[in-house]
Fold this protein.
Amino acid sequence: MKALVLNRYGGFDQVVFADLLRPVPKPDEILVQVHAAGLNPVDNKIRAGEMKPLLRLKLPATMGCDLAGVVVEVGQRVTRFKPGDAVFASIFGLGGGRSLNLLS
């Protein structure tokens, strides 16, 4: 998958597009094919390191917390969503960029 990745806190040169392995959703997660993602002022503060006291990221980290897309896979305990469902979400603080934890 393509992702916007923050390698280190700092300037804009620390954010690059990268190819990552496709995540496998856990039993209570869904995997979304993202059609649109948004970056907002908080993402800029994260990049600059201003959010470190509140948000501990394991770097490199995938940027962008707001998304819209289509569910492509669901964990075995998920009942609310199914592949093909259109979704939008804000995943701030949920470990974004890996798989989306949405309890059914």
User: Anything to note?
Assistant: The longest helix spans residues 41-48. The mean pLDDT is 88.
